[in-house]
Amino acid sequence: MRSKLCYLVLVMMLAGCVTYGRDFGTSPVRNIQTNVTTQKEIFGFFGEPMRKGLENGNETWTYSYHYYEFGQLRDSKELYIVFNRDNTVRSYSFTAK
Description:
With 97 residues, this protein is of the alpha+beta class. The protein contains two helices and five strands; from the N terminus they run αβαββββ. The protein is elongated.
């Protein structure tokens, strides 16, 4: 019985904080210019994206970070970028909590 209680306490302590994604700096977001900023520059600003995909034939990159503390969202950032075929930024959206 005592080992079950110790196990439960350990699980509760570990479940206190959860991070999903990789934190990234937000100051370079204001430097992004559509049809000017390149994929290489985005990579230099933010590193490897968390997800890559396609939208209407255009490559997309997603950077995402979510931090939960005791089940509540404490910090959240998401940057979604769509690239033109010439590897410049077609459009982007950034949200943060």
